[in-house]
Design goal:
The protein is an alpha/beta fold. 40% of the residues lie in helices and 17% in strands. Helix 2 runs parallel beside helix 3. The longest helix has 14 residues. The radius of gyration is 21 Å and the shape is globular.
């Protein structure tokens, strides 16, 4: 099956060919035809499976031939949990829609930056990508109206509902027209997603793509038994000795993220931390530098990881283990994407050992473990 067989706009197929997208991913094969037919869709698939394009392509195609819009009345609303993901989704809309004969104006709005440029940018917008809090601020300022929304997308619905957005989202739902197309995409079918599915989806096409074992097998996983105080030297040792480039390091707290990045820099390793307390400008610049390969190490919390999408990311380090096995899969899934091999390294303290065994059991794969006591970390 090719993208041209879906009945997408020829301009979209042309862009896909130019970007070397030859065969659709499993979720795209099932979701694109349903969305083109304006059906509701619940899509469950792991990160890196092509979820974003699976709704961007048919939405852009459906807008062709009918691009007129009331000023400040968007027709498509995409709700996302983080600023970084908002920017990323907008970039996909702009890239895939670059050759369309009828221009589709797309805007991303989010907090942490001045609201005034966003208010001005909403003139003539057709596709609005937004975080819930900033969207409500713009609605309250009469900068945008949601009464003409034809398609609603909840991207990363599992995280949105877990991060305390429920009250804001309930307010947004009351502002939307009852008759609309609803598209939910999530990495997991959590109870929160199941509940909201029952509330807003109507005769939905359910697309659930199970993670392929081969995708995890593409990732070379290694665990290091290490004491808490040796984590920093071990990280610096691995980066320097193995010549690692484009290393994404996961940390549990903003304070620790800053601390790890600072220590790396002091030891001659180019590193930057990003987290919710950094300014949007600093976060955007750090992501840009990292994606282009100019920044060697990016230290991030799980919250910010949702906006980091790099097709050929070579290495992920779990400096601190995540709380759940699902988050572990999400983290290491940032590498080993698009059939490219990747490396995932996890630091396991004595207190972590039981938890890491549970993670491995849930994953169905045992990780090769190395005792860092046998590594000379002097000077690192």
């Amino acid at each position: 099956m090719s993208f041209s067989s879906f009945g997408l706009s020829p301009a979209l197929v042309k862009v896909l060919a130019a970007q070397h997208y030859e065969q659709p991913y499993p979720i795209q094969k099932e979701a694109i035809p349903a969305i083109l037919q304006r059906k509701d869709v619940l899509g469950i698939a792991q990160t890196g499976s092509g979820k974003t394009a699976s709704y961007v392509l048919p939405i852009l195609s459906n807008l062709q031939g009918n691009t007129t819009v009331k000023n400040r009345h968007a027709r498509v609303l995409v709700l996302v949990p983080t600023r970084e993901l908002a920017v990323q989704v907008r970039e996909v809309f702009i890239l895939l829609g670059s050759e369309l004969p009828e221009r589709v104006k797309t805007l991303a709005v989010f907090g942490g930056v001045s609201i005034n440029p966003q208010m001005i940018g909403l003139q003539g917008v057709q596709v609005l990508v937004a975080t819930p809090g900033r969207l409500l601020e713009l609605v309250e300022s009469n900068a945008v109206h949601l009464s003409e929304i034809e398609t609603l997308v909840l991207d990363e619905a599992d995280k949105m509902l877990n991060l305390g957005f429920r009250e804001e989202m309930n307010r947004i739902f009351t502002l939307l027209p009852q008759k609309r197309q609803n598209l939910l995409f999530s990495a997991t079918l959590s109870p929160e997603v199941a509940n909201i599915n029952q509330i807003i989806l109507h005769d939905a096409v359910v697309v659930k793509i199970e993670p392929e074992k081969e995708q995890i097998d593409l990732i070379e996983q290694t665990g290091y038994f290490v004491t808490l105080e040796k984590k920093g030297p071990l990280l610096r040792y691995l980066i320097k000795k193995n010549g690692l480039q484009q290393v994404l390091v996961f940390i549990s707290s903003t304070f620790q993220a800053d601390n790890v990045a600072d220590k790396l820099c002091k030891n001659g390793i180019d590193a930057v931390s990003i987290h919710s307390k950094k300014s949007q400008g600093a976060r955007t610049e750090a992501l840009r530098e990292f994606k282009t390969g100019k920044l060697r190490v990016l230290v991030t919390t799980d919250l910010l990881a949702r906006g980091i999408d790099i097709e050929f990311l070579p290495c992920v380090v779990n400096y601190e283990l995540p709380r759940s096995p699902k988050d572990y899969i999400h983290r290491i899934g940032r590498t080993g994407r698009a059939e490219n091999p990747g490396e995932a390294i996890s630091f396991v303290t004595p207190e972590d050992q039981h938890h890491f065994r549970i993670i491995q059991k849930k994953m169905g794969k045992w990780v090769t473990m190395i005792d860092s006591q046998n590594i000379d970390l002097k000077g690192f």
